Amino acid sequence: VPELPEAETIGRTLAAHAEGRRIESVEWLSTRVHRGRPPQLAGRTVRRVHRFGKAVLFDLDRGCLLVHLGMTGKLLWRGERGPYTRAVVILDRGEILFDDVRQFGSIRWCERPPAGLGPDPLEIGAHAFVERVQRHKGRIKPLLLNQGFLRGVGNIYADEILFRAMIHPLAPASRLSERRLRRLHKSMTELLEEAIAQGGSSISDYVDATGREGSFQLRHQVYGREGQPCPRCGASICRILVAQRGTHYCPRCQRT
Ligand SMILES: [Zn+2]
Hints:
Shape: elongated
Number of strands: 10
Strand content: 15-25%
Strand order of the largest sheet: 1-6-7-5
Structural class: alpha+beta
Number of helices: 5
Distance between the termini: 27 Å
Largest sheet: 4 strands, antiparallel
Radius of gyration: 19 Å
Bound molecules: zinc ion
């Protein structure tokens, strides 16, 4: 499932081709892609393509297009149309395909970016982050996954960030010391930057807009490594369910 680093990578690879281009038409090949009546987009110009949480946002000269990738959504520059192509955005030069095997993704037109989401993890400073966490009751991992708290961290990166910060996924958020929360903030920004530099993680079928896989999955320390030795201490990596999500951690390195 694409998270912030994957949305950022898709946005970057598309921006180079799509920014400044005019939309000639959009072919909606599945009624599930756009809920309700599809918007009139012909003639609009793509100003900017960038990540917005786990989604990819196209700023147009009026309003914006928000692309939720769901489980298997892909945005492909000059890809080949296939059985899973659900929409095609035809530009005055080139076209963007929206492919989605499982159809949990969507494309939505909106006047402005949706409100109600938390700050971007790479934009919030350490001080604001610490204050924000300390205001919350509950466990730390579900908090990181809560898009109203922070937008863009999902299950894979939450596990990796908590391992790097040596914090147990079930640690009560409000009881973590400022020192540990500052380390959590540092781990989060470093890890997300590294993942972006590697083009994201290709776990199932994620690729960027040019069809290239990411390679950060090769650097995962705990995610998907149940029963394998912890790279730091050698203990067996555990898997538990937290907020119904498979959660991986080292029982020796990560404390509550
Ligand atoms: Zn360990």
